[in-house]
Amino acid sequence: MRVDPSAPERQAQVGALLVAAGDDEGRRAYVRGRWLEELNWLDRRAARAHGWYVALRLATIIGGVLIPAMVGVGPPGNSGGGIPSAIPFALGLVVAIAAATEGFFRFGDRWRHYRRVAETLKTEGWLFAEASGPYAGGAGAAVPFATFVDRVEQVLQADVEGFFNRVAVEKQAADTGQPKAG
Asked: Measured between alpha carbons, how far is 60 from 72 in angstroms, rounded to an integer?
């Protein structure tokens, strides 16, 4: 079972889920092979998107602040020494590239999306492990586990449908020349 070793909470949750799944190896395989693998994948994607988002936003913000300061100092030869004009120009290109890349890939939206889906899966896992919410009072272990599987699959299906709906909306907007939907 691959569990992110840097996440003791995840290890505890997986352990609780495996206990709640009982001795049925099929249930335990679902917890490890579907729920855990999807959750780890979402966490990795969220971390990567967050890293790109922060790096690109910082490049845009810092560069956007530095360019006017550099231009204000003026070209070399002024009383203050000045800054060669190529430096603010190059920094302007970096800012434009960073802003365009973030606008195209929408790493901030991706990060929030992956994080939201991952947190929903974690919540379902804890509810099942603690026999609460929709898993409370089930008649035997099979009923709550079937509910757990159904709800996890609904979360994952909604994620896939949301992705394809967004792609379809963006393609339609591109085909008609209209702005993308948020």
From this structure: 19
Per-residue pLDDT reduced to its tens digit, 56-115:
999 999 999 999 988 887 776 655 566 788 899 999 999 999 999 999 999 999 999 999
CB 101 within 8 A of CB 58: no
Flag whether 39 is in a domain. yes
Domain that holds residue 31: 8-176
Query: In the chain, what's the furthest Cα-to-Cα distance?
Result: 85
Could you tell me the CA-to-CA distances from 131 to 113, 119, 136, 166, 175 in Å, in that order? 27, 18, 5, 35, 49
pTM of the model: 0.78
How crowded is residue 2: how many other Cβ atoms within 10 Å of its Cβ?
9
Split into its structural domains, the chain has a count of 1
